[in-house]
Protein: Acyl-CoA dehydrogenase family protein
Organism: Mucilaginibacter angelicae
Amino acid sequence: MSTTNLPDALPAPNSDFYMIADCLSDKELEKLAEVREFAEKKANPLVNEYWAKDAFPFELLPSFKELNIAGAGYTGYGCAGGGTLFAGFLAMELARVDCSIATFFGVHSGLAMGSIFLCGSEEQKEHWLPQMARLEKIGSFGLTEPLIGSGASGGLLTTAKREGDHWILNGEKKWIGNATWGDVTIIWARDLEDNQVKGFIVENNTPGFRAEKIENKMALRITQNAHIIMENCVVSEANRLQEDSSFRDTARVLRMTRSFVAWEAVGCMMGAYENALRYAQTRMQFGKPIAKFQLVQDLLVKMLGNITASQTMCVRLSQIQDAGKLKDEHASLAKAFCTVKMRECVGWAREVLGANGILLDYNIGRFVADSEAIYSYEGTREMNTLIVGKAITGFGAFV
């Protein structure tokens, strides 16, 4: 495209307008810079190709392992450590380049490792977490079912029946990221004896466990989601999460990871905004770059406003979490708010690009499509709104 009449130096896209990175330590900033370099130089050149192919870029895994970020936010057991704020920045930075890569990381490090860290025995943590932190074992999280999404707290159809020192699992799970090629899945099932939800560490090569790839997705196509079928799948009592006794414990994991989804939504907005701004600065129309037009600047500023509001909310949320004061309603408000703002933001980014916005070549179309998955997983906007609504009114409005 022509760049006639452009200034010699244009402002580089900067989606950290309120300098939230200043909240991190120098050591954390150094690690974040490594993650950004990996995302921009190694992941970014591949993601459109693999998104189109509906495949995972396994050649990125060696470089991803070298980042040593799995288990961010967890202390000990070979985990990356650091606080929740730092872990949130990692999720945001990965999603800024590709939401599928961020989801792979969130499922493995957040949901799977988090389940073991929060609900596992000391022995289970010592056995599994170091392997998973080194990415020698890739984890998945199996809660959602073909017929059960928002109603997981009381209606899981997957069952667990104890027989001596083993449990027999039967049922199905759906939308389980990483499970088509990973090594271990945290399966949540309803105990037939006491009707309580319990968690199990299930190795994916266990007889009776089958993971089938979900085809024809329009979002997060790099993330490999599975439909899991369990038929008399035998799991030892030693692989039952020992500190988990009901859905209240499952909810502890979701409370923690729901915060990271809010961070992912922010990263998705940042990626869409930065790509749109670069385009607007160089796309010529009527003899000048479209960034000179008032309506385009209005769209860009509204996008930056959404990003900045969501970033500051997530920073405060992580501070609350690190202080041990996080409640369900705190995480739910951030997830609901940030994903709504994300949907607006990616739509405005596509609007800036016009017809080019639907082409993978310009990245925006990928952010638009992937945002739809982030908008729905880890609790829909409606369910998270009801959680906050109950907290502020004192009345439950659930079915």
